[in-house]
Design a protein that fits this description.
Blueprint (H helix, E strand, L loop, with lengths): L1 H9 L2 H21 L3 H26 L3 H31 L13
Helix pairs in contact: 2-3, 3-4
Length: 109
């Protein structure tokens, strides 16, 4: 376990922050720009993974395992989100024969 912490601490924290910022920005752009429901869910997962990278990196740098515990909780929430999200996408596709979120306005009335 000590070699993993030493390896993580050998890389400057700025690199982890830059990587997580890049991944989070790509995820935000995917949510804002794309209209496909599956791509939007994938972008949300990308944002959650960016947060997981930061939590694990800061946890290793501080030598405190609480950040890694939060990573497990985030992964559990992400797994539940995927299950519910895919069920919603399947139901939307059955009703509209498309997964474009702009078509969801037809379901209102």
């Amino acid at each position: 376990m000590g070699t993993v912490t030493q390896t993580i601490q050998a890389v400057p924290i700025n690199h982890y922050i830059l990587l997580a910022s890049l991944l989070f920005t790509i995820g935000v752009m995917g949510v804002l720009v794309r209209r496909n429901a599956i791509v939007i869910f994938m972008s949300i997962e990308l944002m959650l993974n960016a947060v997981n990278i930061l939590l694990a990196a800061f946890s290793a740098y501080r030598g405190d395992a609480s950040g890694q515990v939060f990573v497990f909780f985030i992964m559990a929430v992400a797994a539940a989100e995927v299950a519910v999200g895919l069920a919603i996408i399947v139901m939307i596709y059955r009703n509209t024969r498309s997964i474009d979120i702009n078509i969801l306005n037809k379901l209102k009335g």
